[in-house]
Batch of 3 targets.
Target 1
Amino acid sequence: MTTNTTDVRRTRLDLAKSAPRVFRALVGFDAAAREGLDPALVELIQIRASHLNHCAYCLHMHTNDARKAGENEDRLHMVAVWREARHFFTEKEQAALALTEAVTRVADAGVPDDVYARAAAHFDDQELARVLALILTINTWNRLALSTGKVAGTDERR
């Protein structure tokens, strides 16, 4: 007998209902991390981490959010290959994307000093702290969406 993955996913935990204080804390952390950051940069970071984590739910959500914020299709298509398409992104965005990759893949090689230094050269301490917090937050959201079986295209914020 074949199990329909959509049916299995519908039976998984809903963190917002099962642990509302935890969920609200995560929402608050996310909001605090975004404060003062360029909305386009926020979406680029979230998109890249979602690529790396194979989180279709979050990738769909954040590419849509980026479009609504005025991001163009060329840049959205190039996020996954930003190193090969650097001319689509500012130096600051490239530094943030490199940091996003290092933090998301922290188990592979830690966060190399050169990657951290490059980000620190483009962001003041407060911005860098928020960028790091944002990277941590999207990685948490990705893991939550993947472990609870969220389905791309079913953005529950609406």
Note: The CA atoms of residues 54 and 101 lie 13 Å apart.
Target 2
Amino acid sequence: MARGRLLRRVTEDEFDALYATAFPRLVGQLTALTGDHGEAQDVVQEAFVRAWCRRASVLADRAPEAWVRTVAVRLAVSRWRRARRWRELVCGHGAAERVLEPGLEHLVIVQALRQLPEAQRRAVVLHHLCDLTVEQVAQETGSPTGTVKARLSRGRAALAKLLTPGGTVSVG
């Protein structure tokens, strides 16, 4: 019997009745939760869109308004999390680090990298500074994996010579 209720065709009038009675109440509840009337309207509206897609099962549920409220609350929480994460990315400590002037060590490493052949420099930067795997570097550069490994090996050896005391580039 329950299966038959899930499969029955729900009319637009039945769904409209749920919407008309529940929407204002849910917006009020979500406004209290979010503190923002416009945000509450958005998440409740999105929850009703999702309910429309599942209207037969939602209306067959004993508490369709509770289903819509649960979806709206989850949407609001997801938006909070995204907003908080965005704020952390934009206002977090990472942004301040990017605007600091480079230290002497950074300048020396950049100068040493400039002395490497372009293919070695690119492989070293992609692998060690961008944290790409050898396979990802190969894909990015369009080179075979073995070639990338050789470029990394040669590039590291050249950098070691350049950055050691007596090399062309040194700290100090």
Note: The chain has a mean pLDDT of 82.
Target 3
Amino acid sequence: MTTARDIMHPGAAWIPEGVMLDRAAQLMRDLGVGALPISDENERLCGILTDRDIVIGCVATGRDPSRVTAGELAQGTPRWIDADADVDEVLREMEDHRIRRLPVIENKRLVGMISEADLAQHLSEEQIGAWAERIYAGSPA
């Protein structure tokens, strides 16, 4: 059985909800990632910040990224998957919620992230094709 742990990118980092967006963007640049999970004061997942969130939710609205926190842009219920979850559960979670990045949690700690690139590396062409068709069908640009 292939698990989330088998396909995840290990060593993911998260940021506290009080981190300013300019610092979050710098961290994304330094880590070469487009998203960072956001943690609350108890180191619990409270959202995911993407580079697109920073641009659309802050910069494009004329706000100063050095004065807006990651937590201010966190919206909705964050989705995650247990490290031992089967890859079919991973795909179902991503499809059901139309998400492209999924934090992997073990013992209430972030241990990795699964992105589209991880799926492409570890799934068959048929699996990735079917997944892409379902997640992008009717998806806004």
Note: The chain has seven helices and seven strands.
